[in-house]
Amino acid sequence: MTGEYNTCFTIHFNDEDYADITDCASDDYEMGCKMEIIENDVVSFTHGSLEAGSSSTASLHIRAEAIGDCGSEFQYVLTLHSDDTDQMDVTTAVELSELDKAAILSDSGLTFNYPVSRDDAYYALFFSIEAVSPVRDDGWIKLYAEDMSDFVYYGGIPCAVVIDSFTLDIDTVAEVSLTSFKSEYEFALQWEPNCENLNARIRVYNDDDEVIGETNVGHDAIVAENWEAVVNSVNYNKLEVYRARLQVRDLDHETVVQFSDYINFEHWPLCHLYVDSFSQESFDWSMDEAHFELGVGVALSHQGDQACEQMAADIHLYAGESLVFTHELSASDLQAAIAGSFEFTIVEDSDADVTHAVIEFTDPRSENDATSGFDVVYPSMGGCEIAIENFCLVDVVETDVAGEAQFDFSLVVRSTPACHELDVSLDIVQEGNYLGNVVIDSADIVSAVECNCETTFQVTASAAIAGEFYGQIDVREPSTGKIYISDSTPFAVPV
């Protein structure tokens, strides 16, 4: 309010000798203004969405009293302070309608919403309000206001985390060892500045929802974006669909936990083959030492059940660098070797001069072909050994000589080269009685014994052609005195 004032002063003297003195003065005046903040509070604070990137909103309440003539044209200034004054001291004009301005001076005051930016500096704020009013034409002056420093602290935006992306580089899924594979991941996050102890954990699960691999990335690495998320997982030796998931949390805020969607991926373990053992188990010469029997023990194993689909195993015998024999294990023999062990006997001619044996275990999808070998150990040849085999009386017939019978025999006798010239004798037995007058062509029978083959020969003797007959052969080795006796198969002639 402005106006003109007149002021008069009168001096009255008690002494009648002096007259009263009156003096008057006049001038223009302008009434002063005092603005007092009665109520200043934050009614509510709505946090903006980190994921949506929206602003926060403060609902403010202010009630003031104006003493004096503050005029009708004034505005309010909102001063925002962070809890670290070095970070922020922002003063902005709050645009209010005339009705809102009037409401501030009403008995109920004014409640209004004010948007707060999501800039880092605007977390954890204090609020105060000042009033300014225009005077004359020389600009704005700050009005006098008491209790203007009653700041209200709303507590700040709490820790919040958003997972923007979580991806697997499928080309990185690969074996680390025979018992594990690795997979590499990338992720992108958003978080509030007061999240100060972030942790990102990636887990890999199998079909049974068991955790088979895990890695953690700490706060400093997340903030610096300096991390390598590689998960090493147990290899279950079979084709399986695995699942990976990212969990992000702040270790100082138990309720701040975010999970990504699952990433499903397949891992096909590679095929690996092993020869666990391959060895000579036995070695036996034939009687004539023209061939030998080599006993071989085999044990095989593999890694990657679905990957190893066309396994095969071949056993080779070599004479120096020359291949002299190959045997492919049958499907049943191969499974027996994989299940535990398998023994196989190889028959080969002695003159093959076998020096060593090799096994090759292969599969078209294998990362490696497994091989193993051993040198063949020959035992020393023994002394004279004789084996009478297949001694059979095959027929008994009459001869042209009265009272004489012909006996037809087949015979196989094996002997080692150490045996010298053999002596051979033969008896004919009829119904338990040895016959006399047995005529033997000694050259034929000795030839039959020493040929190491099957041969036939005839013997005659005085006998009635009736009853059961059999022959009994004696083979003697003079240098050792060994005698080998064998009975033939019987032959019956009806009476």
What's the helix and strand layout?
Blueprint: E1 2-11, E2 21-30, E3 33-46, E4 56-68, E5 75-82, E6 89-94, H1 98-104, E7 110-116, E8 125-134, E9 140-142, E10 144-146, E11 152-153, E12 161-177, E13 180-191, E14 198-205, E15 211-217, H2 219-224, E16 229-234, E17 240-250, E18 253-259, E19 263-267, E20 272-285, E21 291-303, E22 312-319, E23 322-328, H3 331-339, E24 342-349, E25 356-362, E26 370-375, E27 386-398, E28 404-415, E29 423-430, E30 433-434, E31 439-440, H4 442-450, E32 454-462, E33 467-477, E34 482-487, E35 491-493
Parallel strand pairs: 3-10
Antiparallel strand pairs: 1-2, 3-4, 4-7, 5-6, 5-8, 8-9, 8-11, 12-13, 13-16, 14-15, 14-17, 17-18, 17-19, 20-21, 21-24, 22-23, 22-25, 25-26, 27-28, 28-32, 29-30, 29-33, 31-32, 33-34, 33-35
Molecular structure report:
With 495 residues, the chain is mostly beta strands. Helices cover 6% and strands 58% of the residues. It contains four helices and 35 strands. The chain has helices at 98-104, 219-224, 331-339, 442-450; strands spanning 2-11, 21-30, 33-46, 56-68, 75-82, 89-94, 110-116, 125-134, 140-142, 144-146, 152-153, 161-177, 180-191, 198-205, 211-217, 229-234, 240-250, 253-259, 263-267, 272-285, 291-303, 312-319, 322-328, 342-349, 356-362, 370-375, 386-398, 404-415, 423-430, 433-434, 439-440, 454-462, 467-477, 482-487, 491-493. The strands form nine sheets. Strands 5, 6, 8, 9 and 11 form a five-stranded antiparallel sheet that branches. Strands 14, 15, 17, 18 and 19 form a five-stranded antiparallel sheet that branches. Strand 5 (75-82) and strand 6 form a beta hairpin. The protein is rod-shaped and about 215 Å long.
